[in-house]
Amino acid sequence: MKRTLIKDLKEHLNKEVLLQGWIEELRNLSKIKFLILRDRTGNMQTIALKAETDADSFSLIDSLTKESVVEIMGTPKENKTSHWGIEVLIKKLVVISKSATPLPVDNTDKSQTHIEKRIDHRFLDTRNLKVQAIFKIRSKIARIITCFFDENGFTNINTPKLTTIGVESGAELFIVDYFGKPAYLAQSPQIYKQMFVAGGFERVYEIAPVFRAEKSHTVRHLTEFTGVDFEMGFINDHHEVMDLIESMFFDLVRNLEKEAAVELELLGVVKHTLPSKIPRLTMEEAKKLLLAKGKKYAADEDLDPEGEKLISEIVKERYKSEFVFITLFPWAVKPFYQMKDEKNKKVTKSFDLLLNGVEICSGSQREHRLEVWRQQAKEKSLDPEAMKEYMELFQYGMPPHGGAGFGLDRITQRLLGLDNIREAVLLPRDPERLRP
Fold it and tell me: How far is CA 247 from the centre of its chain?
């Protein structure tokens, strides 16, 4: 008999079906036994009646344990008093794989198990349908974003993660032994993105691991995360990059509401209200608004997490938007390859996108003019001659271009309102964690 998934049971009322899955709950009475079965599509109450269930199967249920894998042959019946509206009457039950007891974690909805211990036994944790829902949504986010890039003329590329170029700051690098020579885990695909804009593709994107050797112990930082990076050529300015990001997030939120409606409802995620256009504040404008609230910054200072949270609250109240772009960051806090603003050389054509108080995306227009690029490197005390592979990109015709990067993990965390980014990553890596 072909397996029936739990989500399809209503199509098979009063017909014999074959179910396979894990035992979520057991309740054993003398003449009736209740068993909640779970598969990848949901869970369902199944019932064994002494008068109707195979005798061996009825006895076997007494020895079953939670999370054992079983096969059930039975008949789905309508039951309006049931939480599911139906239930399955068990005819025969076969044990495929019995689970040991006790379980090392509580994977029920009432679990008080700490996130660190849950990650230690993640394969058990993800059997919980709410935890599964997070990663099903994350998968849909990746697919929707990929479709958006494809529909907007971008080419997917794969860039090296073992490299001697493509680095921005020596303090954030993981050094590895590459056959007796030092190499680094890539902390950004920045140079490679620019390389293939110059290579004629004009528009490229990558969804891949990014590594940051920072000992950050926060609920929004990891040492390895999944970056979504893109670069686009022949732009007029950084606003064109922001326009694309705005369209991408609007497309993402709207499609996610349709394609992940079941998972979003299961997690109790409140629908995001999209503005007609995401507000754009210069850093100077943002600092003036923050000063009025008693938060003061120096002219060449970046916003701290407290400032990001406060400016988002101001924007939400004033513009009714959960999103806000902060633009024109001080040159002092940005990489040398960002283009300076023509009117004010102390700022760059850069931006961050905040969602409910947390930065989720950062980007800029890049400097494409070789002599300006060289001069800006020197201003940051960098030697252009030590970056010959990077510099070569600008020697044979480079169009005006810009791009951005954001973390798939953080996007998932913020859209779902999760307290900790580790909830949005199957097997996170932080300064202490290298297993499982």
Answer: 18
| E strand or H helix that includes residue 42 | strand 42-49
Query: Is 221 among the residues known to form the active site?
Result: yes
For 313, the enclosing helix (H) or strand (E) is helix 305-319
Please indicate whether residue 410 is annotated as part of the active site.
yes
Q: Annotated catalytic, 301?
A: no
pLDDT in tens, 77-113: 999 998 899 999 999 999 999 999 999 999 999 999 9
280 is catalytic: no
Q: d(Cα 306, Cα 290) in Å, to the nearest integer?
A: 10
- What are phi and psi for residue 152, nearest 5 degrees? -110, 20
Name 219's Cβ contacts closer than 8 Å, sequence gap at least 6: 419, 420, 421, 422
- The C-alpha atoms of residue 321 and residue 272 are separated, in whole angstroms, by 9
- Which of 238, 272, 410, 414 is catalytic? The answer is 410
Q: Which amino acid is at 388?
A: K
pLDDT one-digit tens code per residue, 25-67: 999 887 899 999 999 999 999 999 999 999 999 999 999 999 9
Nearest to 47 by CA among 11, 22, 79, 15: 79
Return phi, psi of residue 170, to 5°: -60, -20
The one catalytic residue in 359, 366, 401, 414 is: 359
Question: How far is Cα 377 from Cα 326, in angstroms, rounded to an integer?
Answer: 24
Active site includes 313?
no
Backbone torsions φ then ψ of 290, nearest 5 degrees? -70, -35
| pLDDT band for position 338 (cuts 50, 70, 90) | very high
> What pLDDT does residue 216 have?
82
Look up residue 390 and give its amino acid.
Y
Catalytic annotation, pick one of 220, 280, 429, 433: 220
Q: Which of 409, 403, 407 is nearest to 426 (CA)?
A: 409
User: What distance in Å separates the CA atoms of residue 237 and residue 225, rounded to the nearest whole number?
Assistant: 29
- Whether 121 is a known active-site residue: answer no
Confidence band, pLDDT 50/70/90 cuts, at residue 179: very high
Distance between CA atoms of 137 and 52, rounded to whole angstroms?
40
Catalytic residue among 68, 99, 111, 362: 362
| SS3 category, 181 | strand
State mean pLDDT over 274-292. 96
List pLDDT tens digits, range 185-228: 999 999 999 999 999 999 999 999 999 998 888 888 899 999 99
Catalytic residue, candidates 118, 212, 374, 422: 212
Establish whether 38 is a catalytic residue: no
Q: Which of 168, 202, 214, 240 is catalytic?
A: 214
